[in-house]
Hints:
Number of strands of chain B: 10
Number of helices of chain B: 13
Number of domains of chain A: 2
Shape of chain B: globular
Oligomer: heterodimer
Helix content of chain A: 55-70%
Largest sheet of chain A: none
CATH superfamily of chain B: P-loop containing nucleotide triphosphate hydrolases
CATH topology of chain B: Rossmann fold
Largest interface: A-B, 23 and 25 residues
Strand content of chain B: 15-25%
Shape of chain A: flat
Order of helices and strands of chain B: EEEHEEHHHEHHHEHEHEEHHHH
Radius of gyration of chain A: 24 Å
Number of strands of chain A: 0
CATH class of chain B: Alpha Beta
Amino acid sequence: MKNVAFGQYYPADSPLHRMDPRAKVILAILYIVCTFLCKNAISFACLVLSALVLVVLSHLPLRLILRSMRPILFIIVFTSVINIFMTKGEHLLTPADWRIKIYAEGLWNALFMVLRISALILGTGIFLTYTTTPIALTDALERLLSPLKKIKIPVHDFAMMMTIALRFIPTLTEETEKIMNAQRARGASFSTGSLINRAKALIPILIPLFVSAFNRAFDLASAMECRCYHGDEGRTRLKVLHYRASDLVAVLLMLSFGVGVFFLNRLGIGPHLS
Amino acid sequence: MDKIRLENVSYVYNRGLPFEQVALDNVSLSIRAGCVTGIIGHTGSGKSTMMQLLNGLAEPTSGRVFLDGYDINAKAEDLYEEWSALPEYAHLSKGARKKAIRREVARRRAELCFRVGLVMQYPEYQLFEETVEKDIAFGPRNMKLSEEEIGLRVREAARFAGLDEELLQKSPFDLSGGQKRRVALAGVIAMRPEVLVLDEPAAGLDPAGRTRILDGILRYQRTTGSTVLIVSHSMEDMARYCDDVVVMGDARVLMQGERREIFSHTQELTDAGLDIPQITHLVRLLRERGVPLPENIYTVEDAVLAVQALFAE
């Protein structure tokens, strides 16, 4: 379980790491929109290019990025198969008398969908999880959503809950691993037997895990109250976020990328998403 | 005879990542059968990692771990050559022999966690059953023993761990910290392991709790003649309970040998960030001032006897 790479902060000193987390949240949203704007080969080529630029800017090792793609491998394969076989078009590639018909449009669609999903995962991963600490991320979300406080939505409380949840993911993972090892040392096996037996085998892990999670929650609540935590009102911050010129430039660049993609779609050349 | 032998064992966490960490660096050591061996070292010296290598929970990055001379991580393919000559396998055809060897290796592997019982740090967090009795029975039940045998072992283990009969029907969550710890110990003892490995068994307990759990362990060891390994950083406990001592530091073995030998290396122990037992230190100071006390005193009881003997003269 120590090898889970998806959604883990990777410490490095890169332009993306130094960026204001709020800007990164905005950039991530814009990037997602851009991936959905792409409609033809040229705009998708630009998308690939932008993804490469992001990888270079983030100073992340390529291996880590490839590994983050592994969990979505199934989705990628699944959508491409569906797209290849189910899309109807004009350019038939297989002989006309075959029962299975593959069209050129289907192949292009499959490629585009793969690129879109990969860019989606890559973009959010690079902007949000790999270069931004979870704490900075929730902080950014709280600040970005703070206008909602006007309509009585407890943004701060949600953000605090998020922060605590994120903070305890590694702790609970470690704990799960410890408990699993302890039960394994008593001869428990989690990977053999029927489905029902396997579900039963989880009980010796889940019960101790819940007990300790509740105990932790009580302790944490007491600790927070001891430090006079009473919610949002009048709370100051250790790290105050400041936008810098580079953040603005980055957002503007992303906006122009979106506009560029929008106009590239209008060019009627090359294959396009059908 | 060596019960356990480690040969050039290394273990690396997060290999290839920037947070790569060497937990064990080319460690070789042997553990005598039927003895209590203490493993000391301060936090991060690789003690706890080593524990998990002994019952196959983790596999060393490199090097080999032997239990009774058998490499516990051996692959069937590697043993094929060597075992083919054995009478059990020699008469079989090639295919059947391969299969038989593979089955035997898998059997030994599955048996390993029952032969080497591991009590982890703060084991009270692993309790989950409705009653103490059921929780202690978890290990024996996984061994597929008969109900009768399970009942027998649960009572025996509870006795070793110093748990009263009436506790058996209680919920483990209603017990005190020290009692929970002893229930967890009983849960491992109930498997009757030949080797009992304990990671900081007395950590965080009050003095009475410490004595009770350590005495329970010793009672088991004396009665069954099993091999016991205790990881700890309490010199006092080590001095009282262990025959042999292994000193670890910076992912390596710094010293290993009999208790007397190890505690005479005061300087090296201090360099490793460890202390000799306070009473040993006191006796040493007294000797330096000309009090004719014997050198090898590690427990307060021994010191009392020695001082009494001195006054009797």
